[in-house]
Design a protein that fits this description.
Number of strands of chain A: 8
Distance between the termini of chain A: 5 Å
Oligomer: homotrimer
Shape of chain A: elongated
Number of helices of chain A: 3
Chain lengths: ~140, ~140, ~140
């Protein structure tokens, strides 16, 4: 049994979902482990991780529309507004989605459903360099 | 240290929560591993996984009522309506809950709290055959 | 490859977020494993786990404000009111956040982002003794 640690970097350009499935697959291929458990952790509190549909890109547009409507920028409830009206909504949206995900890997293949992709959900309006920590344990 | 891969299938019949705890326990019992980490991944984007109360079934009714009210079928925000008014709400509800869960297993026993059950949350109105991938690593 | 099982206890005093990062770090330090995968499971259905900002405590205040507003106590939709108006909202808030989290540990260090802390999110108004099960696999 072995384990590997790594990190992927993704430059985001505003509030939306970014498909990182291919980046994850490439990292897995480079490791000296064939089958095991892969765990992803995003190292931020204003962007999150999500598994959702990778086929019709309108799903991604609608996900963003929904969260934008649910957690309104500049909501008067919020007192933490240090970095602007999209600051606190980003923390709430992170709380409502996920910061870590785990997947079985069998013979170098991530066990995802036919229409599933792995996404970074950027919740801020500006550009950021987002880091996702990777851990892979298996043999 | 060993690992096992598997899958459980669950036929759903409309939008609600389905307790799969017993199915998971049975699968764990059949594996040649006594203690370790169990990881579940649902292989769909319109049904999700959840740990919640397994005692009063009204909790399950109320969870469904809340999500139905929060993410309305036919919401005019949504442009992805390919499979009907419950299509995009299913993706949003999946984003708001979980697609993967991990549990410690000690001496073949899933470490759950007294009132915790493991559920598939079906978000579509029709019947579906849902697949949950299982991974168990331990000894 | 080795594994360790444990539990931490946290006494909560009402609805808010409780930082348990230090408790987790202490537990990891005491185990005979240097690097691996740490998994946390809260053993309750009315309190949950969350990774969010640990710097400005107003973020925690605002997270509570948002969830309080989104899932209203005494919402007439709810039929499960056995333990009072904050009972069913607690189950919904648990569904909207997480019950389990996994983190890579490298050389005894939890791989968290600079501003990330690990929190128990207590969703009930009263005091509770909350249990979080821990599992650590590695070498």
């Amino acid at each position: 049994m072995k384990q590997a640690f790594g990190e992927i970097l993704k430059n985001t350009e505003g509030r939306k979902l970014y498909d990182i499935t291919t980046m994850i697959i490439h990292w897995v291929e480079q490791q000296n482990i064939t089958s095991g458990l892969l765990t992803l952790n995003i190292l931020h509190t204003s962007a999150s991780l999500l598994v959702n549909e990778n086929y019709d890109s309108n799903v991604l547009v609608d996900l963003e529309s929904f969260f934008c409507d649910l957690v309104k920028d500049g909501n008067e409830l919020f007192i933490h507004t240090t970095e602007g009206p999209d600051d606190m909504p980003a923390h709430v949206r992170t709380a409502l989605t996920q910061t870590n995900l785990s997947f079985p890997i069998k013979d170098k293949k991530i066990m995802l459903g036919e229409w599933q992709g792995i996404f970074i959900f950027e919740h801020r309006l500006h550009s950021f360099n987002r880091r996702v920590a990777l851990h892979f344990i298996g043999e």
